[in-house]
Design goal:
The protein is mostly beta strands. The chain is built from two helices and twelve strands.
Length: 243
C-alpha cells in the first residue's frame, strides 16, 4: 500500500503539467535491441534477449521508459530468466538540473526473488552536456519492496524498506560511427543493496541499424542462501534506432 501511495502522489504531481505538455512540440527518440547466441558441443547453450527504450522530451518535462527480457538455457535447462521495466518522469528546472519521479520493477527467476520494486524521487545533475559527451548524475530517496519466492524450507515473504538510489549515465562518441556508454545504478536499503553496471560499445552499420557489444554486471550485497552475489552477462546485439 505504501508503494501504491507514493506512486499515486507522483502521478498527481504530474497532472498540472499535462495541458502544457500537449501544447509543446513533442520529440520522441528510442531504440530496440535484440541479442541471441547458440553454442554446441559437449553442452548446448542458447541465449536470447530484447530491450526497448523510449524517451520523450518537451519544454519542461521529459519521460523515459525501458523494458528488457533475457533468457538462457544449457542442455534445455533454464539458466537465465529475467524481466525488468522502468519509467521515469523528469521536471526540467534549468540547463543542468532536473527533478524526477521513478518507478522500477524486475523479476529474476535465478535470484530467489519473485518480484522487486522501487519507487523514488530525486534530483538529476548534468555534469557534462557537450555535443559528443553526456554525463548525468542522479540520486534521491525511495521505497523498496522485495517479494521472496517460496522454498522447500520457507514460505513466500515480503520485505519493505525505505532506502535511496544513486545513478550515473555516461556516453561518449569515439568517432562519427562509434559510441561508448556506461550506466551505473545503486539501490540501497536496510535489507540489501543492489549495484548494477552496464558498459557498451555501439557501432553504426548503416542508417538506423547498429551493432553493440556490452558487459552487464549485477551485484547483491546480501544474496539469499544458495544464490551467487554477482551475475555477469556479455551480449552481442543488433540495435535499431528510433527517431
Amino acid at each position: 500500500m505504501k508503494l501504491v501511495s507514493l506512486a499515486s502522489l507522483a502521478a498527481i504531481a504530474a497532472v498540472p503539467a499535462l495541458p502544457a505538455m500537449a501544447q509543446e512540440a513533442d520529440k520522441w527518440t528510442g531504440e530496440g535491441a535484440f541479442n541471441a547466441g547458440f553454442t554446441t558441443g559437449n553442452t548446448e547453450t542458447r541465449d536470447a534477449g530484447v530491450a526497448v527504450r523510449v524517451h520523450h522530451t518537451g519544454d519542461q518535462w521529459t519521460q523515459a521508459g525501458e523494458f528488457t527480457a533475457d533468457y538462457g538455457d544449457t542442455d534445455e535447462v533454464a539458466t537465465r530468466n529475467r524481466l525488468s521495466a522502468s519509467g521515469q518522469i523528469d521536471r526540467i528546472f534549468s540547463d543542468q538540473w532536473n527533478g524526477y519521479t521513478r518507478l522500477a520493477w524486475e523479476r529474476d527467476e535465478f535470484s530467489g526473488f519473485e518480484n522487486r520494486s522501487f519507487v523514488g524521487v530525486g534530483g538529476a545533475y548534468k555534469a557534462i552536456d557537450a555535443p559528443g559527451t553526456k554525463w548525468t548524475l542522479e540520486g534521491g530517496p525511495g521505497y523498496k519492496v522485495d517479494e521472496l519466492s517460496a522454498s522447500d524450507t520457507a514460505p513466500a515473504t515480503k520485505e519493505e524498506s525505505f532506502g535511496g538510489r544513486l545513478a550515473s549515465r555516461f556516453s561518449h562518441d569515439l568517432n562519427e560511427r562509434v559510441q561508448m556508454s556506461d550506466v551505473t545504478e545503486i539501490v540501497a536499503s536496510d535489507t540489501s543493496t543492489q549495484v548494477s553496471n552496464s558498459v557498451a560499445l555501439t557501432a553504426n552499420i548503416m542508417g538506423n541499424l547498429s551493432a553493440r557489444v556490452s558487459l552487464d554486471v549485477r551485484h547483491d550485497t546480501d544474496p539469499l542462501p544458495g544464490f551467487e552475489a554477482t551475475d555477469t552477462a556479455t551480449k552481442f546485439s543488433l540495435v535499431y534506432k528510433i527517431e
